Amino acid sequence: MLQQDSNLTSSDGVDDIVIRDATEADRAVIQGLLHGSLRRNYDGDHVAQADRIIDAHLGGGKDPVGHFSKTQHVYVAESGGEVVGVMNIAEKRQGTMKISPLIVNPDFRGSKGAGSALLAKSVEVARARGVRQLYGTVAEPSSWIETFYLNRGWTCGSQSNSQYRPGVVEHAIYYNVDDTAATASEPLKFEEYSPSKYEELERFLTSRMDVFVDGIDEEFVRALVAGHERRGTREVEAKYKEIYLGYESGVLSSVIAFGPKKGGAVKLMPLSATSQDALRQTLRFAQSWAEGRTHKLYTHQHVDPAVVTAFQSEMWTLEGLLPEAYAADKVAAQWGWLPGETTHLGRNSDRLKAYTERFLTFVQDRGWDRIEEARSLAMAVGGEAGELLAELQWLSETEVVELLRMDREFKTRVSFEAADILNYLIRLARYCEFDLIEAADKKLAVNIDRFPVDEVHGLKGTRFKAGR
């Protein structure tokens, strides 16, 4: 459970932050930070959680109920004598360390750097303890938190729906503390296959692909090259390939073949590299090749820590496991990538649907659904719209733009009024038994016909109506 500061860089004010061990005197503020932040996306007693981690920390780092925990410590971020953030780190017997949680007071998120300082402390402690990997989880609704971590070298490893609260998707993220394998001496240079490279290609594939694929021999390579020679047809049924070779300092370090499939997706097979970094660079090359050519890349690979890390680092999604698909007693994994994706957020879940389920559960738990009426809910939508208007009533557009940019409280008030409108619309849709998104989708289809692009582009509604 990681709750972080949202700025992507740590700047002015970071020198004012002091990271120190938590003390008994910090208990109340730590309880408040956990309860205030975690209750938005996590079920459970967060005050009790705060007490447990503080007790373990003050008890010499031993957690009496944690069977995997080796040591456990709580650190706080302090600014001007005020505790503004907290982090609990639990060292595991397996040589890893979990951050659970890391929370920063909202007033000290961003450029003041409290979150950055706590995160740096976790890496410092991990290195001192000989820990190989830090890990934690982020709730998908807190998307900016995951962005914070991704921009600091962390990787999204997996997703799990309804793990800590029904309807909330949780993302597991990790950071390899001393990942020297990810540094290459120089970038790979890619070139299209040519007949003069046949023997080099054959040696590379027959010596490397058998790690999880049976039948990789000279006949396989000849068939692969024949597919490359058919690339001029551009016919899917011809099963053509485009083969590229990646070189580092003149040494062949990766091979990738693009095979278009029915439906427009492109399969990368074979795809093999001599190191994790060479594989990551090859994936980036594939992604640049894909832009404007396909809606999806996918490949089948053996299950190996370096391979998994490379694909996760380049934002590919694990789509399934294929036992014995390519060799007896071996498992292959299917990885997929969609052009334009830069994070894992929202890939496997409908965030509005998940939120709707959570919100309606909130309403039902309080018995409000039993006293609802369509008229009252519709009036509530209008009332909340009026409150949104009241925030903007006496402001010019220039003033609104400036306040949204500079005044955090103003932006929060506007966003909360808009959220209230959404909440009442969700309740109204449930009461009236229609799907809100389906209705909006149908109305969009009507409006596409009603407002042709060539007639309305750049026109405000009143000017368009006047011309009709």
Automatic annotation (TrEMBL):
Gene3D superfamilies: 3.40.630.30, MazG-like
Residue ranges of every copy of the N-acetyltransferase domain listed in the record: 17-180
One Pfam family named in its UniProt record: Acetyltransf_1
Entries under InterPro entries matching the protein: Acyl_CoA_acyltransferase, dCTP_Pyrophosphatase, DCTPP, GNAT_dom
Keyword Transcription regulation on entry: no
Protein's name in the database: GCN5-like N-acetyltransferase
A GO biological-process term: nucleoside triphosphate catabolic process
